[in-house]
Design a protein that fits this description.
This protein is α+β, with helices and mostly antiparallel strands and 511 residues long. 30% of the residues lie in helices and 22% in strands. Strand 2 and strand 3 form a beta hairpin.
């Protein structure tokens, strides 16, 4: 397709050709299987595939491919009425049979989705008629609609492309179709002429492959791309600040979308000592990190979840920056500084912890170094361990860390999906909590909060769970993650309720 090649090439400062929006990503978007994970990129899966229901800010659920639903009094049966007249981009109808076919593929591989409790909860999926589907659960699982709204794995491809090994082609009901991919260069999306909803203003979206944030910033300045959108992986805080200060393009910052945090290992000495965990929380100067390293673009985090998520506005007392208090806690716990020493000791053991981060992530490295300096000031020796991403993931799974980065997932996962995953041994959160004497009780409360139908009980259980984790100091929340956008020649650039979905449909060429 020669047109695609031309679109993906370098542009003059005027920007993209008429009807085209040029974005960028760190790599190609992948095969775009709605039921699978990496290398499929979530923002692109959301362009092609749609859910039964959509998530909106504050936990509001709205119709999408389902226009209505009813829930049985016992909370175990969901009947969905499907939107009429919807077709897949290949012209085949979207109906109850298509919904069931996708669920059948999903449920045949339950083990691949063990992080998502909804998949484990599904007992059966029945076709009631062409426009009605019944979902029956084992328990009254309250996050059902929230998890049906996720970008993956519960979205719908045309049955004609479904196979046991994944989809043969990315054919969905969404507003965009993947028209062409050139490995290492670009992906071209075109507007779906059969889309049932409002047609996007743009005819095409070119997603250029630009792995490096610095190169992406240069591409924006030279007019090669029209939009940078996302977190610090898409544009560095310093580049964003420079653009905003100099008036280069239009800039915007979202409300908090998730939490940048470190898990602190309660199951491994010396962080098995609660006094050490609390001292770490008091020793770290989050305001300085937010101001100097994050350029004020991510507000300081005092709790595991930002208070704008459901069930999380609990008024918990923050661990304020107080090195003197950190020192007192350590002194009282028997961690003392030997004469002339810089590292505290108890019973002959130095107060030394491994702080693990992704070695080629410049932001994590800089934050780690700042935390290391803060801890050194109170007599804690933080040994920095920078490794490639797979090695850090292995440490998260087997607990070989003192502190380790582990951001929350944001909407619509927080708090329920993230809390649910705390019971899975292969998650850093489980490893961080496994040394707590009340870990079994925490897990039992998590199980209960996910299936209770009593709203007051649910609120009380979340309060108990999150208060206990906060008081046990098994997390070091650092900042609340935000998304940033820089655009030129594009109107309607805003932020969605989720960090993983880009609202291209609201964007339009500036007059």
């Amino acid at each position: 397709m020669l047109a695609a090649a031309a679109l993906a090439g370098g542009h003059a400062a005027a920007g993209s050709p008429k009807g085209t929006l040029t974005y960028s990503w760190t790599g190609n978007v992948g095969p775009l299987d709605p039921h699978r994970y990496s290398p499929n990129q979530m923002f692109a899966q959301a362009m092609v595939y749609e859910p039964l229901v959509r998530y909106r800010e504050g936990g509001v659920i709205e119709p999408c491919l389902a226009t209505a639903w009813t829930v049985s009094p016992d909370g175990r049966t969901y009947d969905f009425t499907l939107r009429e007249g919807v077709v897949f981009s290949d012209g085949t109808p979207f109906d109850a049979a298509a919904v069931k076919a996708n669920f059948d593929v999903l449920l045949a591989e339950r083990a691949k989705h063990d992080w998502l409790e909804l998949v484990a909860q599904i007992r059966s999926v029945e076709v009631l008629d062409a426009a009605k589907v019944r979902l029956t659960l084992k328990d009254p699982y309250y996050p059902t609609l929230l998890e049906l709204a996720l970008i993956r794995p519960v979205r719908f491809a045309a049955p004609s492309v479904l196979t046991a090994d994944g989809v043969r082609a990315p054919v969905g009901t969404g507003p965009w179709m993947l028209a062409e991919t050139k490995r290492g260069e670009y992906d071209l999306f075109t507007r779906n002429p059969s889309y049932w909803g409002p047609k996007p203003a743009y005819e095409r979206i070119v997603v250029k492959v630009i792995p490096d944030p610095t190169s992406r910033a240069v591409a924006f300045e030279t007019g090669e791309i029209d939009l940078i959108y996302g977190g610090t992986g898409q544009i560095s805080a310093d580049s964003f600040t420079r653009f905003r200060t100099r008036g280069i393009g239009r800039t915007a910052v979202s409300a908090p979308l998730a939490t940048r945090t470190m898990a602190i290992n309660s199951g491994r000495a010396p962080t098995s000592d609660p006094a050490v965990r609390k001292a770490i929380n008091h020793a770290v100067d989050k305001d300085a990190i937010a101001a100097k390293l994050l350029y004020g673009l991510e507000p300081r985090a005092d709790t595991l979840f930002a208070p704008n998520f459901p069930y999380t506005d609990l008024g918990l007392t923050p661990y304020g920056y107080d090195p003197a208090r950190a020192a007192r806690l350590l002194d009282e716990a028997g961690w003392t500084l030997p004469p002339g020493g810089t590292v505290r000791v108890r019973g002959g053991q130095p107060l030394r912890v491994e702080l693990c981060f992704i070695g080629n992530d410049a932001r994590e490295k800089a934050i780690s170094e700042a935390v290391q300096a803060n801890l050194k000031a109170v007599g804690i020796d933080a040994v920095l361990v920078g490794e490639e991403e797979n090695a850090i993931e292995a440490r998260q799974k087997d607990g070989r860390f003192g502190l380790i980065f582990g951001d929350t997932w944001g909407a619509p996962y927080d708090p329920h999906s993230f809390v649910s995953s705390m019971r899975v041994a292969s998650h850093a959160d489980y490893q961080a909590q496994r040394g707590l004497s009340m870990k079994a009780e925490i897990d039992a409360r998590i199980g209960a909060v996910l299936v209770t139908t009593d709203e007051a009980e649910r609120q009380a259980l979340y309060r108990d769970i999150l208060t206990t984790l906060h008081e046990q100091a098994v997390y070091l929340p650092l900042s609340y993650l935000t998304a940033m956008a820089v655009s030129r020649g594009v109107d309607g650039v805003g932020f969605g309720a989720s960090a993983y979905e880009i609202p291209f449909g609201a964007m339009r060429p500036a007059p």
